[in-house]
Structures are given as C-alpha cells and as structure tokens.
Amino acid sequence: MNAMQEKLFLELRQTKEEIEISLKKKQKQAWLTSILKEELADINTAIQKFEEGKFGQCELSGEFIPEDLLKMFPTIKSIKDTEDLEYFYKKPLSTAFL
Fold it and tell me: What torsion do the CA atoms of 23, 25, 29, 30 make, to the nearest 10 degrees?
C-alpha cells in the first residue's frame, strides 16, 4: 500500500466508525438512515478491496482508476461511475478526470 492508499484506508475506517455510531443513535429520519446505510455498505466494500489488494481497480474492466478520482471518491467502484459524477456537482467536471 502506498502513502496515498494508507491515508484513504485510514479515512475510510474513521468514516465507517462515525457512521456506525450515528446509526446506533437512531434519531434520524428514515431517508437519512437509508443514505447512511448505503454509504456504510460502499465503505465496507472499499475496505474489503484494500484487504484483498484490489483497491483502485475498476470492477468492470479491471483497469486502475486514476488516483485523482480515488482521492475524491475512495468508494468509487468503476470507471463507468465517473459518468454519473456530474449529478453530484453544481459545476461541470474537467474532462481531464474522465
């Protein structure tokens, strides 16, 4: 694991703990609980990929996802997911990432 991956792995584990604590409090609206559970599932998948040595690989093609994208979205599963990133931003993404 390189330094960037180690940092992302640590951030994923910390975020996982924060979400689990938040879910245990159960003082959230149902829609928020649903979002937190989905995010937790994505984080668990990313952590599992780290443990299997497959972090950063596209689940569809096996190609490596650019590090810039992994830094922004460590739970990204495939290069195809980048097609949907425009829905998460108010400003258009640079084509350098795609």
Answer: 40
Taking only the tens place, the pLDDT of each residue in 24-43 is 887 768 888 888 899 999 99
Rounded Cα distance, 78 and 59, in Å:
5
Question: If DSSP codes are grouped into helix, strand and coil, which group holds residue 68?
Answer: helix
CA dihedral sign of residues 48, 11, 9, 63: positive
Please state, as a whole number, how many other Cβ atoms lie within 10 Å of the Cβ of residue 32. Answer: 12
What pTM did the predictor assign? 0.76
Residue 64 DSSP label: B
Distances (CA, A) of 22 to 8, 15, 56: 21, 10, 27
Q: Supply angle C-alpha 62, 37, 48, rounded to 5.
A: 35
